[in-house]
């Protein structure tokens, strides 16, 4: 049974295209090289001339190189003689790329062969030594874009410049609106822990930033992984992984965009060091997992490879890489709930769930109701995902040029500060700048979750328990209620409050 996946639906003996047809769109920026055009599937951009192919029954096949070569030979004979395949992650997922056929043409070819016969499956079985080897599904390689959280609970505040100057409204109440996450009271319980690691899946991190360098995760021993068909070793001293890099450069996830560095500062800029800004966690370890280039663009393959790297590294390093949260201030938007996106990415996020890792994701900013027009990966229905929208200083959805942050009664969990948030930036921007929208809101939730993992009574609840307390601690907010129907616009109808979330751990 093969599926062309736009959602997790099985249709026997045929590809599933639903009502969505591949189209073309104007030129966009790509990571690997310039392309003459992009294509779209269900309204979302996809990598031209590429498909992701998932095999089932290959778990017992130990030689990934043989399997990749076998798949490439079969697909060249049946689909397109120019196809080149490469492994994605470390399992049974492969990227197939043509030098001449568009995504739309490749889709038609797969549909023709698999609707009328089972030639590809039979060819895979032949000489493979595995009678169970099958094509499970084929799907687009969607393009992703970065988007523009007992002891004495006494109030505790740091001496960092922008905090002292009253610039950091997202952390502490500066006026009667009282829309901050109430960090000072939360810090009475904990200011974070160097034993907790947060992954920043983004454009990399400028690790030498004076407010980040002490909170960067650093490998203490060599790490050897096999990701995307490549076996490589990262030496001690690395701060993470670059999924966009050429062979030999994977262990240097620097930031050319600045987006990942801004996210990192909100989660974990060093606190109480008398300079710059402070993150939700004064003490934390941040690992850079780079999936986007200088333009802020990446794709599903890179996201899967980044997650696979950190899971394999965690297997080797154990407590030296105590990963608890992944922040994801990026996404893509299919144009229909019947086109629910990448099954391969969803499967990878589910691996994190099984490891007790929260996946915090921005809800996007296209003015959409995510229940009607999905935003992914924030909209995947997985127990470890927390979807976050953004509020401005007036308690309204953050809006720029009349386009607001997204909502969703069942697909967006809560709001967090996301307007003019002071954080860490690249040197050419003066090391500090302001960030807005859900890209800035999501790291407040990631940071609060990490803070809760450093508090014993919260940590004992596990990842899903911490998620439930984060949501239970949300403060009801008028802008999160539909003025006509009076129904909540998000799951909680409220905004993040770190102090209330911590208090909820004892309930």
Description:
This protein has helices at residues 64-78, 103-116, 119-125, 161-164, 183-187, 259-268, 300-317, 343-354, 438-453, 456-459, 462-472, 498-503, and strands spanning 3-4, 23-25, 38-41, 44-46, 50-56, 84-88, 93-97, 134-139, 143-146, 192-202, 223-227, 230-234, 240-242, 283-290, 297-299, 323-328, 330-331, 358-362, 385-391, 399-400, 403-404, 414-417, 421-424, 432-435, 475-476, 494-495. The chain is 24% helix and 22% strand. The protein is built from 12 helices and 26 strands. It has 507 residues and is of the alpha/beta class.
Short description:
This protein is α/β, with parallel strands linked by helices. The chain has twelve helices and 26 strands.
**Which structural class do you get from the secondary structure elements?**
alpha/beta
Number of strands: 26
The average pLDDT value, as a whole number, equals 87
Task: Describe the main β-sheet briefly.
Answer: 7 strands, parallel
State the distance separating the first and last CA atoms.
Answer: 47 Å
As a percent range, the share of strand residues is 15-25%
Morphology? globular
Total of DSSP H or I helical runs spanning 4+ residues: 12
Spans where pLDDT lies below 50 across 5 or more residues: 1-36, 149-153
Q: Determine Rg (CA atoms, Å).
A: 23 Å
State the share of residues found in helices, binned by percent. Answer: 10-25%
Give me the side-by-side strand order of the main sheet. 13-14-10-16-18-19-22
């Amino acid at each position: 049974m093969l599926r062309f996946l736009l959602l997790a639906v099985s249709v026997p003996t045929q590809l599933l295209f639903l009502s969505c047809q591949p189209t073309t769109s104007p030129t966009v920026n790509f990571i690997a090289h310039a392309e003459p055009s992009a294509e779209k599937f269900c309204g979302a951009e996809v990598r031209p001339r590429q498909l992701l192919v998932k095999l089932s029954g290959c778990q017992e096949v130990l030689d990934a190189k043989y399997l990749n070569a076998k798949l490439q030979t079969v697909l060249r004979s049946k689909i397109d003689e120019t196809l080149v395949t490469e492994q994605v992650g470390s399992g049974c997922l492969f990227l197939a790329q043509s030098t001449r056929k568009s995504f739309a043409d490749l889709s038609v070819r797969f549909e023709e062969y698999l609707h009328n016969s089972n030639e590809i499956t039979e060819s895979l079985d032949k000489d493979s030594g595995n009678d169970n080897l099958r094509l499970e599904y084929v799907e687009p390689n969607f393009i992703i874009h970065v988007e523009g959280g007992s002891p004495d609970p006494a109030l505790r505040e740091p001496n960092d410049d922008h905090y002292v100057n009253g610039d950091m409204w997202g952390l502490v109440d500066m006026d009667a609106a009282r829309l901050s996450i109430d960090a000072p009271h939360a810090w009475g319980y904990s200011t974070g822990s160097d034993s907790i690691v947060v992954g920043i899946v983004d454009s990399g991190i400028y690790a030498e930033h004076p407010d980040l360098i002490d909170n960067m995760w650093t490998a203490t021993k060599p790490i050897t992984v096999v990701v995307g068909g490549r076996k490589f070793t990262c030496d001690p001293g690395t701060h993470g992984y670059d999924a966009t890099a050429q062979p030999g450069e994977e262990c240097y996830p620097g930031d050319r965009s600045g987006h990942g560095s801004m996210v990192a500062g909100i989660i974990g800029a060093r606190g109480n060091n008398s300079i710059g800004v402070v993150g939700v966690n004064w003490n934390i370890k941040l690992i850079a997992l780079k999936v986007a280039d200088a333009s802020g663009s990446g794709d599903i393959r890179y996201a899967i490879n980044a997650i696979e790297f950190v899971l394999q590294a965690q297997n080797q390093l154990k407590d030296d890489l105590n990963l608890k949260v992944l922040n994801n201030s990026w996404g893509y938007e299919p144009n229909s709930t019947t086109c629910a996106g990448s099954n391969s990415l969803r499967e990878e996020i589910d691996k994190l769930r099984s490891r007790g890792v929260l996946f915090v994701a921005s809800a996007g900013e296209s003015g959409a109701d995510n229940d009607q027009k999905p935003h992914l990966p924030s909209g995947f229905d997985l127990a470890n995902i927390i979807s976050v929208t953004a509020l401005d200083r007036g308690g309204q959805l953050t809006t720029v040029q009349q386009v607001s942050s997204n909502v969703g009664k069942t697909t967006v969990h809560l709001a967090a500060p996301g307007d003019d948030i002071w954080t860490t930036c690249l040197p050419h921007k003066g090391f500090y700048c302001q960030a807005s929208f859900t890209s800035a809101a999501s790291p407040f939730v990631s940071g609060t979750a990490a803070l809760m993992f450093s508090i014993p009574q919260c940590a004992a609840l596990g990842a899903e328990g911490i998620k439930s307390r984060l949501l239970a601690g949300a403060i009801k907010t008028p802008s999160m209620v539909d003025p006509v129907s009076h129904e909540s616009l998000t799951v909680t109808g409220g905004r993040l409050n770190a102090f209330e979330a911590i208090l909820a751990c004892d309930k």
